[in-house]
Amino acid sequence: MKNGLQKFGKFLSAMVMPNIGAFIAWGFITALFIADGWIPNAKLASIQPYMLTFLLPMLIAYTGGKQVGGDRGGVMGAIAVMGCIAGVGGFDGQPMLMGAMVMGPFAGWVIKKFDKAMDGHMPAGFEMLINNFSVGILGMIVAIIGYFIIGPFMSAVLAVLTAGVNVLVKVKLIPLAAIFIEPAKVLFLNNAINHGIFTPIGIEQAKEAGKSIMYMLEANPGPGLGVLLAYAVFSKDKVTKSSAPGAIIIHFFGGIHEIYFPYILMNPIVIIAPIVGNICAITFFTFTKCGLIGPSSPGSIIAYLSMSPKSQIPLTILGVLIATVVSFLIASPIIRMSDGKSLEDAQDDMAAKKAESKGITVDPGEKKDADKVKKIVFACDAGMGSSAMGATKFRNRVKAQRPDLTVINTSVDNIPADCDIAVVQAVLADRARKSAPQAQLVIINNFLQDPNLDGLYEQMTAKVDASAQTAAAVEEVETPVATGNTKILVEEGIKTGLKPVDKFEAIKAAGKLLNELGYVEEGYIDAMVKREETVTTYMGLGVAIPHGTGDAKKKVQKTGIVMLQYPEGVDFDGEKAQLVFGIAGIGDEHLGLLAKISEIIEDPERLEQLKTTKNVDEIMEMFK
Fold first, then answer.
1. Is 1 exposed, middle or buried (CB count within 10 Å of its CB: 0-12, 13-18, 19+)?
2. What's the DSSP call for residue 375?
3. Paired residues of 582 in beta bridges
4. How far apart are CA 451 and CA 2, in angstroms?
5. Average pLDDT of span 542-569
């Protein structure tokens, strides 16, 4: 049941998360220009109801439809939700965010089924006519269903939920929601609860009262901050203690609450601290009638305060402080009295739980002793770019302490039988387990900057036999460094100062450039998109390396790499990539240049230079 809830929550949040920027824009317009806002302006405030009634539901419905039925499903979803909006009276009815979460995927499913039925049966020459009319006719039908059935039904559901929340607020029981919220975070259900339940109810309340306490329940950074402060002060484990201050900055100012989940997993009883801390904060917010104008996402103190009404900012700060202090006071004695497990073990647990939240339940296997590990394999879908760079970076990091260790890369379906540890992204864990049943799996999110890679490094170097550290490498694969290989990276293959676009547009642009320079056939571009849909090519540190799937290697005409620079960043599922390297490789010809890229991005100054310079000659000089 838990796994089903996690998959459902992931599906819900995936409709909302790509559109958070629109929610923030709506929140800012509300906070700034309404009558009680920071700079009241009736004309500009009139934008707000249009965004709430039409823009936000249409964006969510389009995203949900696209998830299920591709671009055609997105268009269908946008059409369908308009039926819901009209069915509840437009401006006079309730915002149809929950209706959009139903109609978008439903409309996408309808067109997906139609396309599947027509596959192979479409008369030649009528493809465009049938494609356009099918969306138009089916979209009209689904919109009518939304008008008469889904819209009124979701309006009734939202009215019941809102009434229930109002009752809890009146009888002062809303603080008890923290009992479910904080454990849900550790199970990665936080986005499902926040965006799937609290945000729609909050929008309805804010429409009537100008603010809502629902926005404050999950996003408050105080409970997690208290736990991290307690570890920073009282943890007995030096690694854990030294890591907590950095985690505090990421959590409190960056709004990445996931950073403190491993600290909870170290001592599960610590979960009491954020629960009680949040209960106290919500109680305070309830009695002082606090609320936010719009959703706070991410849950950083900056976003939290920016959504607070001007007159209530001191109370909002005080509520965060209450949550922090209470959480800290409860967590501190628990941490002092408990040895707990190491941060490394907790991060392993977190990776497993995160994979499980995505519907992946793979046993990572027994952790191997360092002196028994001879070969580590970084595996990605095609074994071409992501894993190659990850292996190079980790090899360089560990070779001084473990010259006996072989670190290579390959495709996930071809992990060698003598592999001791396989490093894979979560969505590929199941395939890795089938390919290498004997190996310990290290499950990561990206290949360059992941806590579990730090844990693997500690695992490999903590208890190494002195003789092993001085032994020569037996099987280590040395990757040659590319020196002036103008055939692989040329001036024409470097584009700087590009404006941010959708990640798939950036990937297609990289593929198109590879094609224009004669590296690949045009069909390789679709394979790059397919690769990204399977597993992200975001590497960490602001770098993405899109490339084709394994079966697309036949479309590669010669080895080449292109670089697209987006100074403002391209959104790769919540991560910003300023550098997008398109890769097409025959054999191992491209590995030298990848090694050089890895070397450059390990230097913060050179990495920043690569992300911002407009001088192509300067970039070429860096890769010599």
1. exposed
2. E
3. 562
4. 25
5. 85
